[in-house]
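Aim 2 progress update. The chain analyzed this quarter is reproduced below.
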Amino acid sequence: MQTSKPGYGTIALVAALFAILAGALWFAAGAWTSVSGPPMPTAGYVAMILGIVFSLIIGCGLMALLFYSSRYGYDEPFRPDDDRDRRRTDV
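Predicted structure tokens:
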């Protein structure tokens, strides 16, 4: 079995994306450390963590519903002559 090597275009694209990522991280770190002001209270950290956790739960739940409806045909248009629709009516 022969494996193909990535071309120069792929290598250039990956290198450019890593350069953009490094620049974004450098900018974010500089912006984070340059902000002055009072430290965030514990309640602020708790609120931020709860917001992140609930956002992830809602996002994962919506994606699960999306995959469920796609897998079981709820996204398909109604066709009265389809056997699957007749079987689903007795559920």
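The helical segments are 8-34, 42-71, 83-88. Residues 15 and 43 are 41 Å apart (CA to CA). These observations will guide the mutagenesis experiments scheduled for the next reporting period.
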